[in-house]
Amino acid sequence: MSFDSNAYREASLENWEEAAAGWVARQALMREFAAPVSHWLIDAISPQPGQRVLELAAGLGETAMLAAELVAPMGGVVVSDQAEAMLVGARARAIELGLANVEFQVLNAEWIDLPLASVDAVVCRWGYMLMADPATALGETRRVLRPGGVLALAVWDSIEHNPWAALPARELVERGVVPAPDRSAPAPGPFVLGSAERVAELLEQAGFAEIEVQAVDLLRRHPDFEELWDSTLDLSRNFHDAILSRPPSEIDGIRASLAERFAPYTSADGTLEIPGRTLVARASS
Ligand SMILES: C[S@@+](CC[C@H](N)C(=O)[O-])C[C@H]1O[C@@H](n2cnc3c(N)ncnc32)[C@H](O)[C@@H]1O
After folding, report:
1. Dihedral of the alpha carbons of 256, 261, 267, 271, in degrees to the nearest 10
2. Which of 87, 141, 178, 273 is packed most tightly, with the most Cβ within 10 A?
3. pLDDT per residue as tens digits for the range 133-169
4. How far away, in angstroms, is 216 Cα from ligand 1 center?
5. Which residues line ligand 1 (CB under 6 A)?
6. For residue 15, what are the domain limits?
7. Do 59 and 81 meet the contact criterion of CB atoms below 8 Å apart?
């Protein structure tokens, strides 16, 4: 089956508009889980006072907001996402943090509605691999960066390194709730850019220079399995929709089986500690 990029874009937008409430509810969990990545990205762009920083596929805009204080008072950040509902959550977070130099813009990263060479740096945490055409999005990113500007991005490493996602996916595939992914014709998805070589190649093809790609290990902590289950429903629309399509007795079975799959990650104090691995990259325009 060939990939219908326009149908994908439409479904992705709807998905993320619906997912926003769950992401707002789980923002503290994501902030803690993602902290090493956010700090890597900010170090990589090294924001200076007076600069303008763009975050693409920003969700709640957490990474840009870390840069906002560093570029203040004359500089500012633009938090952008295709989903308006995500930016509603981002606005609330900026108010909570008392940030005055944050703008918000609904935009698709594949056609960035900003002028040529209009920003000093771009950050994108866990966005490009979800786009219908990441190569076009990287070309657009380079267009809006000033010459010598910096891009820092994160994409998930392969699913084998991310049991927090691999175990629920395996459970659903083995039960026939969702089809097995077609590895010969990979559609956009969290793990589709999970190779350092592929990321470097895409950056190079988009014209970036001084490319650096590395892996960062993460740890996702949950007080217990119940909290892991609830947050997976909140954060993954695909998981949520697949689960809610099943009868209650089957949902109970899936839940019990997943609790067993995650049990080996129980730490000495009874909490769950599940590893993850992401790739991060820095490149100059
Ligand atoms: C996994 S979330 C990551 C959110 C945030 N960057 C973070 O790390 O918490 C992916 C986000 O990418 C956005 N997104 C996906 N494709 C996009 C596109 N083509 N243009 C702009 N945003 C996009 C979604 O709307 C969603 O908010």
Report:
1. -40
2. 141
3. 999 999 999 999 999 999 999 999 999 999 999 999 9
4. 20
5. 12, 16, 30, 57-59, 62, 81-83, 86, 108-110, 125-127, 130-131
6. 5-159+186-221+277-284
7. yes
